[in-house]
Design goal:
This protein has 2 helices and 2 strands. The longest helix has 41 residues. A two-stranded parallel sheet has the order 1-2. By secondary structure, it is α+β, with helices and mostly antiparallel strands.
């Protein structure tokens, strides 16, 4: 998981494992920026709920980035208009 972060930083990572070595699991969680750790055996309904929550977080982060870009653009346009009217140095 850690190796894909530079190329794909946005996906929400969920670790499903039956691996018993807790130190390896903790390392994977920390280094792979894991949102949720689910150990075997898991309940299908719990897995579905966690995937829905992860998708909601992903969507909100994406919307936040888009709104921030829109705000930056609007601010640049406003600064340009103010400079045109000699209201800004």
């Amino acid at each position: 998981m850690e190796s894909i972060i530079p190329d794909f930083p946005d996906p929400i990572r969920i670790l499903l494992t039956g691996y018993a070595d807790i130190n390896a699991v903790i390392d994977a969680i920390n280094r792979g920026q894991v949102y949720k750790y689910i150990q075997k055996p898991w309940m299908d309904e719990d897995l579905r709920i966690n995937i829905e929550k992860a998708f909601e977080i992903y969507s909100l982060r994406k919307e936040n980035r888009e709104l921030t870009q829109q705000l930056i653009l609007a601010n640049k346009q406003l600064e340009f208009l103010l400079r045109q009217n000699n209201l800004l140095p």
